[in-house]
């Protein structure tokens, strides 16, 4: 359980400045920066679709989908099913699961959850990802298990759903070479199969590259 920051009240009649606002501002800034490190998009949305908060991943996703507001303070350009879902979440306290079609015709899931905040009707949106494993997680995984650049390239292709024959054709090498590299990856990561290897990658914490935090809507 999160414990509030403790601070001392100034003596009666004292002109001392209470330190809590500064500490809370620091904590708020740290949480915003931390959420910007997530590869999952997260956002706080009002019933009308206006954004109260959005991390970098959410903003990037909205730009790809063409959802970005026309101006500051304007609602997102949401699909037709979203307004009703936001009403259900914000006013009736229901949880909604939605699907979003990406430009490449793949889909991702979005969960809208109500937040029990006084005098606030907000939906907390958590967006899924359109890839098994991001480049940052893959590089961290490769460094952890000391994979070679060639093995890392093969692993990246496996994450994209390619088989050994397709990877060999893409890399211009023999299929046996790719099979040997896959065997080496499995040995280094102690994976019993390619499926278990990909499962381990899918369970990696979703993190982004270390980029400056972006301003919110």
Task: Please outline the helices and strands.
Blueprint: H1 20-35, E1 42-46, E2 51-54, H2 56-65, H3 82-92, E3 96-101, E4 107-114, E5 122-127, H4 135-144, H5 149-159, H6 164-171, H7 175-189, H8 194-202
Antiparallel strand pairs: 1-2, 1-5, 3-4, 4-5
Helix pairs in contact: 4-5, 5-7, 6-7
Please state the CA-atom Rg, rounded to the nearest Å. 23 Å
| Assigned CATH class of the largest domain | Alpha Beta
What fraction, in percent, of the residue positions are helical?
40-55%
The largest sheet, given as strand count, sense and whether it forms a barrel, is: 5 strands, antiparallel
- How far apart the termini lie comes to 30 Å
Envelope shape = elongated
β-sheet strand percentage: 5-15%
CATH homologous superfamily designation of the largest domain: PAS domain
The count of DSSP E runs of length 2 or more, i.e. the number of strands, is 5
Report mean pLDDT, rounded to a whole number.
86
Briefly note the structural class of the backbone: alpha+beta
Overall tally of domains: 2
Question: Which stretches are poorly predicted, pLDDT < 50 over at least 5 residues?
Answer: 1-10, 212-217
CATH architecture field of the largest domain: 2-Layer Sandwich
With strands numbered from the N-terminus, the spatial order across the biggest sheet is 2-1-5-4-3
Number of helices: 8
CATH fold group of the largest domain: Beta-Lactamase
């Amino acid at each position: 359980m999160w414990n509030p920051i403790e601070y001392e009240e100034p003596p009666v009649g004292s002109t001392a400045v209470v330190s809590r606002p500064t500490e809370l501002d620091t904590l708020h800034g740290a949480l915003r920066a931390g959420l910007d490190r997530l590869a999952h998009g997260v956002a706080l949305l009002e019933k009308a679709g206006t954004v109260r908060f959005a991390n970098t991943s959410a903003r990037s996703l909205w730009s790809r989908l063409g959802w970005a507001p026309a101006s500051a303070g304007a609602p997102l350009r949401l699909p037709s099913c979203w307004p009703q879902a936001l009403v259900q979440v914000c006013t009736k306290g229901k949880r909604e699961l939605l699907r979003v079609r990406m430009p490449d015709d793949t889909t991702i899931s979005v969960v809208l959850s109500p937040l029990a905040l006084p005098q606030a009707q907000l939906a907390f949106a958590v967006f899924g990802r359109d890839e098994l494993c991001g480049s940052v997680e893959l590089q961290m995984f490769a460094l952890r298990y000391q994979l070679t650049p060639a093995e890392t390239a093969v692993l990246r292709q496996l994450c994209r759903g390619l088989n050994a024959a397709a990877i060999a054709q893409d890399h211009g090498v023999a299929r046996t070479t790719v099979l040997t590299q896959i065997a080496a990856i499995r040995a280094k990561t102690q994976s019993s199969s390619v499926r278990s290897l990909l499962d381990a990658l899918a369970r990696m914490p979703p993190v982004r590259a270390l980029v400056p935090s972006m301003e919110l809507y």
